[in-house]
Amino acid sequence: MSRFSTYMASVLRRSIHSLPNTLSPIPDGLGQQHNGRARSTAWLDGLRGVSACLIFLFHFAYAHNNVLKYGYGGNNGNNDKWITLLPLFRILIDGRAHVNIFWVVSGIALSLKPIQLARNKEWEKSMACVASFTFRRAIRLYLPCLAVTFSIMIAIRLGLYDHADYIHHHWPFTAVREMQPPVLPTFWAQFQHWVSQVWGWANPMDHGKLLYNHHLWTIPLEFKGSIVLFATLVAQARLQPKMRVVCGILCYLYWTILRYDYLAPFYGGMLCAEYMLVLQERKKLLPSNKDSSGSKDGLGLSCLWVVLFIFSMVLLGFPSGDKSPSFGHATLAKLIPLGIGPIWWQVNGATMLAFVVARGEFLQRLFDNRISVYLGKISFGMYIVHGAFNHVMGYRLVPFMWSIFGKQTLFQYELGVGLAWMVEAVFVFWTAAVVDRNIIQPSARFSAWLENRWKA
């Protein structure tokens, strides 16, 4: 017993010493930059981080604003003249647009290394890379989600969801009422319900709704899209680069026409990854005094990239729920091919955005700064925890802010919502960093360890 006691005391001491780092809001590797600038692909992390933050904002706000799905004037004149509904600003309050950005960024990240190896004619290494990505993908996606939803189930048993459950059944707000996990009488009943929910949700072929975190509906689709993309990377690895691009474009159009809106962005990302590698190869051929593709652009080309960037924002903000023609979107609505839904423009906008930022290096500064990269580092953690905070904290904070500032005028109403979101954001960002360090990163290391352990 003395040896065991000594061992447990040693474990406890190490745990206490590591506690400040474990609970730090600063994610690991955040400061690893060169000469004050992030690595060349840091803008991808930053873009993903900004999108995750705006998804969090959207899910917080849509419980209190019932016009977010419309464009400016798209609700037959009924409360639809908000500045945030104008074409360029809708991107700030449209969560689905940022889901498409997520999938395009995933397509780039998953394709970049295999395509680079294929372009170098290192086909065996390219196959091994895709095989490794495929094996580890499910663990890296699902294991953190299982941990977070299990924690939500425990939180329900601890009574942290009692107020949210009451609010759900006595809804006091004006807009979207999200699905809520039921509060069951015993731990065993709650656990069984959680298991059945997770079992149905995790199936990528026919995933169900997950009451313990409704926002995780994208995860099975992310996994399915990744697997389809990996199959394409294997099939096209030995093709000539030009033919690989042609096949990629055909796949992109095919999935778009069939309205597989979650698959087309992955192929947009794959095409963008090839384009980024072409840019890198061209940069290496430039003389040393022209080591940046952006430095060759004159004022005209720079203006072109800015115009395309703005246009991609307009496409991303295309509304999905217009009841009447909205300002700036009516013409685009008429150009949607027959049988294809409004997400068509958002998918194309997300793909265009990636291409434009990849080419216009000066635009990358919007996303490779420290704040954006920080959000990128915690983006997955932020995505999988913010829903629980909206239920546990958001439903309390908004009425509390209204009790202080009132809600009689539009300004007072939105001020209360905005201040409540900012307070909650502090806790979400901190928790996301903790989850990233203690769940997401260990899940990634575990998947790599398991692959090496089982490798033939």
Salient structural properties:
456 residues; mainly alpha; 15 helices
Describe the structure.
- This protein has 456 residues and is mostly helical.
- It has one domain.
- The protein is built from 15 helices and no strands.
- Helix 3 (95-119) crosses helix 12 (343-359), helix 8 packs antiparallel against helix 9 (264-285) and helix 9 (264-285) packs parallel to helix 12 (343-359).
- It is globular, with a radius of gyration of 23 Å.
- The two termini are 41 Å apart.
- The relative contact order is 0.16.
How many runs of DSSP E, i.e. beta strands? 0
What series of H and E elements makes up the topology?
HHHHHHHHHHHHHHH
Q: What's the overall geometry?
A: globular
Number of domains: 1
Uncertain parts:
33-38, 289-295
